[in-house]
Structure formats: structure tokens, C-alpha cells
Give the backbone structure.
Amino acid sequence: MGKISGAHLLVRAMRRHGVERIFGLCGDHVNSIFNACLDEGVGVVDTRHESGATHLADGWARVTGRPGVSVVTGGPGHTNSLTGLATAWMAASPMIAISGMHEARLREQGPLQEVDQLDMVRAITKWARVAEDPRRLAHYFAIAYREAVSGRPGPVHLTIPSDVAEATVDDDAPLPEPYRFEPAAASQAALDAAIGLLHGAERPVVVAGSGVWWSRGWEALERFVEAAQLPCFTIGMARGAVSDEHPLCLGYADPILNAAAREIKRADVVLLIGKRVDFRLAYGNLFGPDAALIQIDVHGPELGRNRAAQLPIQADARVALEQLAAAAERHGGWRQKAWVEELRRARRAFVAASARDEASDAAPLHPLRIVKEVREAAGGDVTWVIDGGDFAQWARLALPARLPGHWVRLGAMGTLGASIPFGIAAQLAHPKEPVVVLTGDGGMAFHAWELHTALRFEAPVVVVVGNDCGWGMERELQRAFYDRTVGTELGPVRYDRVVAAMGGHGEHVEKPAELRPALERALRAGRPACVDVAMRGVASPLTAANIARIKAR
């Protein structure tokens, strides 16, 4: 009987679960895992920083729907990875974060980099363990995978001491079967009640959240809204689950960035699917006080949180939507309510109001002129990856979501700069499709070096930098409340030259007429590209609304 390392057994379990590649940064504690990947046919995307590795694993999950796997060394490698874990935790993104550790036999003797890694991750993971038996590494991975994808998805963590990964085990050690589960369905009584409420409503509305994406429920969502002739809004990872260009989709469920969404407050029945009632929905105040709320969520504790649900339904989003679609088709008698056209008019008026700024020939460029040119240059199958800060809000306002999994945002953690590793993950997942990252100059600096990772792995992501030489959102807030600013000025940096120095494609734009040709060259370059655009600092609608809200207190 032959022998293999525990690391080989671990990687075999990864491969058995469909893991194509890991994202990581090498180190003494995990070199054996990297080495095993070579033998077992699992790719290694090595990053320039451990947070880049965890953000890439998170991004991989967000664009493929399958858990991403990160592998980093212990001690500072582990601590560097924590922001990526927290970002995935807040977004309910299924990822498996593996950290190495000093030898288990040296615990509490003061070895190099001895910290309590498990205690650090417990608050930002669904499940976390230290694996101390090399014969059980495959089982630990199988358990981690199951925890990441079951129920409300999310990140999990496994710390593996270096002597455990390097220990020998029997070559024929059994591998656990991949986890298969039966998604929860809604009860017939709940379905009947939901159909009755929606059919009898004069102003019904559907709001679809990330649970629709994670459950692979976009086809069922479109089938249902078409059968019942219901207006639909999308938010989070559900953006694109029904195309913004579909006649029954009214776009982003954000009242600041979409005037049609302000009308949700007039709805008499709201069907909310796979979306937490959190700050994005104004803690439930997006809905009118008398609206009947039908809430579907796979995670029971979310039902009725912050806003009472007249009909709470704990079920998988896809399964529930398939049931609702079938029930709507059986019921018949649906008609498109007059209020759908009211919503369309509100949306058209809001879009028209942006036309002047989109057409502006002023320099530095207005953010909406930048977004317009990007929108028209990129094509229909593009994956948008949008960072944080003020420039990102203009992108959220004016970029269409057309395809499921092709609209990626930071999530509730709002981790500035994560868009670049997210974009690289998207490009690796969809190598034949364009991926465009939109970020401000502040966000660009956090993970710009991961564009070197993109170069090494031939991921031709295009990064558009709206460069107003500072922290634009904070500058506007400080001006509004203190009549002066501090710590907000970054000065001029040519990010295109930074990327070009790495070996990528760089373009700098100062005039509106220069932007489209620069974008087209970047999209054709066949390698990672940065289009650095001199942008006017303009308070986004989100920032303006926040200023007005705080001043009104």
C-alpha cells in the first residue's frame, strides 16, 4: 500500500467536490498543499496579498455560484485574509478559507507566528475548525463544503497545522461523496395564500434579492413574473436575474438610484424573495406601512426581521419560485395592472434626467459621461464589477444588469477596493467575455497589485478609474458638515502608468472625446488594462441624500 501526504488527501477531496483552482499565497505552513495541487490537477492562482486571495475566492463564488477556496499561510497570512472572510460573511458568499499553522506539537510552546486563529474567525464564519488528524482531512473538507453551501450560504474556515498537512496517510484512503441536499419547498397553504394576495392586489410588486442567485432561481423568477404579470425589482446578486430590459423589470430596488423604486412605498402587496430586510431596504421602510409583506427566505431568522411579514415562508428561493410559477399558471386570470405603466413612466423620467450630464463635454469628465461611454463600449455580455465610493454610485445608477451573475458589488461590508480581485475572479470564470471594473482612485490603490496576478494568469480584465484625486465621498461629506476637509486629498496619480509598468495596457483620458477610443483599445488589448479618467468631483445622489438626511435631523 502506497503513502501520500495529508495535503494530497485534502486536495483530492477538493477535486472530488469540483474545485478547479485555489486562490492563495505560498508560505511554510501551506507549501505542502500547493505542492499537492500540482500532483492532483488543481490549479493554483497565487496572489500578491492574502486579502487578495480571499477576495478572489469570494468573487469566484459570486460569479459561478460555487464555493471558492483560498489557501494562505498562518500568522500574518491568516490575519491578512480576515477582511476577505468578513466581506464574504456579510454577503452570504460561500467560500472555504484554509490557513496553515505552526506544527501542532509545538502548541503553547511559543513557536513563530503562534496566534489563536480559530478565535479570530468564529464571528465571521458559519463553521470553523482546526484539523489535527491527517487521515480525516478529506472529511474535514467535505464538512466545510457542506456548511458553506447549505441553508443561507457563507464562508467557512479550516486551520491545518503544517505537520498535519505533511504527515503520511494511506494512498487508498476513502474520499467522502460530495454533499447533495434537497432544497426546502413551501407548503401548499403558503403558496395558496401568496397567490391569493398577489392576484387580489392593485399595486403588487416583487423584490428579488441575492437568494435568487445563490439558489439558481433566475429562470423560475422570470417565469413567475411573466405568468402573473407582476412588476419586478432586483437587488444585490439578483441584479440581472431578470434583465433590466425586460418589460416587467423596473431595475434596481434602490429608491435613491431609481425613481421607480420610490414607488414601491405605494405597493399594497410586496413579495420579497431572498433579501434581508436591512439598510438597503431602509430596514423595511421601503415598503408602505399598510403593505402586506410576503417574505420568502431559506434562513428562518430573517423572516420578520425589522419588518413584520404577513406571510413568512421559509423555503429555497428557486424551489418556491418554481412552485409559485406553476400555481400562477394554474390559477390564470392575471392581468397587467395599470400601475406597471406608472412605474415605467417614473423610470423613464429618471433616466431622461441623466441625459444632460451623460452628454456633457466638460473636462474633467462628469461621472455620468464616463459611465455612459463605458456602457456603450462594453457590449451586452459584459460582467460589471462595481467598487465603493462616489464614482461607484453613478455606475450603479446608469449601468444595466442584463444577465444573472454579471453584476457584482461589494455587499454589505462595503469593502473598498475588493472590486479588482472580484473582477479578476470573474474574468477567470468567464474568459471569453468582457469584464469591466469601475472604481475610484481611492479604491484602486487597495488591490492594484492584483492586476499583476491577472497578468500572470492571462485574465484581461479592464479597470476604469474615475480619478478625482481624492476620497470623493468623504470630501463631499466633510465639506457639507465641517466647511473644510482633512485627509481627503490624494493628489494626481497616473494609475495607467502603474499598470503599464507591470506589463498591462494603460490609457489616460482627459477629454470626453478621448474616452470611447481609449475604452475600445483597452477592451481589445487582450491583457489587463487600466483606463485612468480625469473626473470631476461630483456628489452622487447617494451622498447628496445622506447629507440631506443628516442635516434634517
The chain has 23 helices and 20 strands. The radius of gyration is 24 Å.
